[in-house]
Amino acid sequence: MDKLFLKTFLSKMMEETLAVQYWDGTIEKYGQGEPVFKIIFHQPLSKKEILDDPYLTFGEAYMDGIIDIEGGLQQIIEAISRNTQSFLHKNKLLSKIVKMKPTSIKKAKEDIQYHYDLGNDFYKLWLDKTMTYSCGYFSNPNDTLYDAQMNKVKYTLKKLNLKKGDKLLDIGSGWGTLIIEAAKTYGTKALGITLSKEQYAKTKEKIKEENLEALVDVKLIDYRDLAKTNEKFDRIVSIGMLEHVGRANYPVYMETINKLLNQGGVSVLHCITAQNERKVNSWSTKYIFPGGHLPSIRELIYLMPEYDFHLLTIESLRRHYAKTLEHWAANFETQLDKISETKDERFIRMWRLYLQGCAASFNYGTIDIHQFVFTKGLNNDFPMARVHL
Length: 389
What we know:
Pfam families: CMAS, DUF7884. The chain is an alpha/beta fold and 389 residues long. The protein contains 16 helices and eleven strands.
């Protein structure tokens, strides 16, 4: 019965020709011509589990070595994604009135440390030398990963229209590249905040190496706790952090920006977005980003007027993130010997699926990434034209 179900399920999964080798050794082909991809099943999968949650079932099966892929993992996920009738497009829409429990500060800290405290040595193997773990910006096809990350940092700082002496806050400051660049280029007094002990320690080290202690600092603190200090900033940036706060905390995030940002101040919010209000796939929240949720564009824009935030620009960086992830995935594969010294095969397959699956999703899936630039109240000193970019 399970094999019969799988045959029906797999035959409709993509337009490209697919070969499937089942656990009994039989091989079947779906489509015309030579197969582009091959899926090898080493043992059966449960029909009930696939119907209940195909993301989790296939994700765990790949992690556990129950299935193998020939033809490229990213490429097969892209092929499935191009078929709008596949399960990758079937995430349930969230009700407009669904009640979601806010993420506590304690839980947020645990979730962040689960992902980001795998160790600086691990991330150093496949990130660029800036240790920037977010979408790059490719000005031309020949940009290296390092070029793209520095482009992104400089482009984002230009969007903030920084002036010497401005106070800048970076919420979710990673390994500190942006706050250090802001101080060096603009003479900005910059503060980064993070919940990752590993990122905090490395950023402190980099600030000292650059002799920027007078201008740059980093704190191990939640954004909500920082707001309680009544400290104010002229500019606030957040890159790749909102995805971790949880849907119920989007108004909390906006209210916190309102408390921290001076009147007329400028904020850049850079985050992964979904086309609609959807549940995040359960494999990702179980193994990669616990507590994660992707906002839709309209959810975020809907909240802005509540705090007198005026939207200036919104820009999609979707293709830039796909290319960034392809760089990371390639670097990851070249470092397998070193990674396998501390990580087991299941972890390696999990991260391979995460990196290549995300690249595929940005190329052909239902997720995007945007930068929103907005001001608190009206700001008539902000450049009318975009020549500063």
